[in-house]
Amino acid sequence: MKKFQGVDVEFGELLRILSRPVEAKARSYSLTSSESGDYLPASHFRVLWEDDKWLEPDAPSIVIGNSYDVNNILPRLLALPSAVMPVTSIVKFWNVEDFKSNNPFDIKPLERTVALGFVGLIIGELTSLISSVDELRTMGMDSVRRTLSFVCAQSIIRGWKGQSLARLADRWLEASVLTDNEVNPSAIANIVSVSDFLCTLSDSVHFESISSEVLGQRIQLWLEAQKDLDQRDLLKRSIPQITRELRSVSSREKRYDIVMDALQSSAGGVYSTLEQGFLISLIEPGSFEFLNLAKSMDPAGLVMTAYSVFVVMLGKESALRNFNGFGGVVLRQAFQQNTDVNSDISVEELNILLNKRRSAPLPFRTRSPWLIEVEIAPMVVGCFANVARRKASSQRTLEASEAIERQEALRGKLITAMRALEDVYGIVEREQLRPDSTFGKPRGRRK
User: In the beta sheet, which residues pair with residue 95?
Assistant: First the structure.
């Protein structure tokens, strides 16, 4: 458990503390990470120093306050003559409301089955955004960190669940809009819904693998819990009934017929994307062979995303080897339980610097030239393409390319002119060498 030195201060005193932290630290008291999110009255902040922070030991690491107060203090800090932008890359500013349902310093590792599900969710989200699934073969972790699925996985590791996941998705969407990153709005709710299902599964499943029958039962129970009392069943037959029928069928063609018959006979043609994705994954468990079929079910790729989740959960290692081992890389690197999480800027400060009401956005420093790492919530970071810098780079590249083209065109014209001069010189030289030629001789006098 992390330990801190902390002191509670009023709004006006915070500015003085940040400029002269030694005096405030002298009157600080010890507290644990679980106490750091205790109640704070309005216009008050809790300033924290990490006990094991060796860099700039007098500078505070974290400032916690009510969201209203945090949003008020950040513009004032940025307006100071000596302000460093972004402020939140040096001192983290957190909302005390984010501590109500969980302690961000507590880490709950994902069960392997749930981690496999998130690998599939990341694959599904990326596949819905790219032109060809073959692009996954060359993708790295930068692409993974740009997904909402990755943010949701981080959040669940930190204890977020249920409605709090939806709040994080709203902040992720806000950061996407501010940084001009394209998003698929219809996919956001679907990813949050599947993440919530995986979170529920992590609370009830504590073993390395899960069978299709047990997984079908969990899906059915979760869907029933989401329904209104007056909502009719989505399928005429329940998922456990279909999985029991498929248990004794080994023929892929026969399994395909059973699944498609179940989907086509659903009541009123109303489907759950989770149901559709799961049933299609049962045609050939662990294989991405029917990815195109799942894609064809809806234009937004929601069924395909759910399908990818269950393919990886049921296929395990064999599914991870697909796409040049992309899934295996994600499983090993995406869900590490780091005690320290670095970011370039918080979503609150990002909203100040890139606010659309500004005549021009304020530039700020990032560690990567192409990515902006935004702290969505305490210890939860999402990555976004640095579109403004890429546009500037593209503009410079275009200008350089146009300059090269102009130089090449000029060089071509000069070469043409030189060749024309050489041709003329050759004609003159040949005329001079002819014995009967009068070319170049002085004319005689006219009588």
Answer: 65
